[in-house]
User: Fold RNA polymerase sigma-70 factor, ECF subfamily from Sphingopyxis flava.
Amino acid sequence: MGARTGSQRTAFLTKRSMTQARDRTDAAQGIEGVLLANRERILRFLALRGAGDAAEDLFQDLWVRLSARSTGPVADPLAYVMRAANNLMLDRYRSARQSELRDKAWGESAADQKPSAESALISREQLALVEQTIAATGERPARIFRRFRVDGVQQRDIAAEMGVSLSTVEADLRKVYAALAALRRQFDAP
Assistant:
């Protein structure tokens, strides 16, 4: 009597897995039922904990989190849901605090990075050299470079504007880029 045939064993395993799946579904429906029945109470709880206008969003997050978990039977589902809501608020506080600290640290480090008088002077001198280098390439290449790099005008439009071919615009840009690359090597040289 203790021995089962292959088909009986398969039927038993199928029935057992269906029962387990139904138990998981019942648990999820139980939590969802608690969420639905106590929606206003949970929203008030979240609002009182500081969620404010975000209480609805947090409720949705809570719903998704709890629905996704596969839990067994819960002795006190409302307490379980409220505890999960409290944990969600704690996560929110921690995240906001970390964000605030990160922003504050970044702001302080950015404010501390004022250039010294010496580095400001060096930067002004380098800018003057860049402008001289661009001007030394000629009036047309300098104008094309400024229209393309500073004003953001397309090369085809510059060619039409100046009455030259697209290849002339490209050649003039290469000329300016080569001059600036040579100047950059001078800046980088020890």
Q: What stands out?
A: The chain has eight helices and no strands. The chain has two domains: 13-111, 117-188.
